[in-house]
Amino acid sequence: MGYTNLEKRPWRSQTARIKRFIQHPLYSPRQTHARDIALVQLQRAVQFSSVVRPVSLPPPSFQMQPLGECWITGWGQVQDEDDPVKTLQEAQVFIVNNTYCQLYLSQALPFHRETLCAANWKDKAMACLGDSGGPLVCEVNRTWLQLGVVSRGRVCLPSAAPNVYTRVSHFSDWIAENVAAAQDAQAQAVPSPLALLLPPLLQLLLSL
Prior knowledge:
Number of helices: 2
CATH architecture: Beta Barrel
Largest sheet: 6 strands, antiparallel, barrel
Mean pLDDT: 83
CATH superfamily: Trypsin-like serine proteases
CATH class: Mainly Beta
Number of strands: 8
Shape: globular
Low-confidence stretches: 194-208
């Protein structure tokens, strides 16, 4: 945590072992990638600092308007067939309508309530191979919310094609239930190390 370059360890960076991987019990990997979300519980609490900070989660009812401005970050390929990068990348994207997304990608999105799409038509910025599980964050009323988790797309190169994201707000209650369960299990200990960290601060993991 706290890394922006994998070849240079910041003096305020942190490491922590994973205690438990919590996959959504109804995850469907083969066809629809439904409920494409998971959590990690760490063995120790995260120490927040100027380089390791939390991100807020949206309430279940939250809806981002189309063309809302957001950002993605990740360690994946910059272009098709490239090696993964050593320096953390970021790109600006905009929320697009799910109906348009479905038509553009020519694939069914049967779980509209669970997914959202984002793209950047001007700069052709997008998530790529190696970015899966990374965050889609948007600033709303001066608060950074994680609205999505990189799930899938059609191509992996500079393109205006949208990416499909798991809609975090749809799973806010499930996340809260797991955080509460971890806290209850360690009620007499330090605050639960179950943390959602924006890479390198927040990590919602998923298996494709």
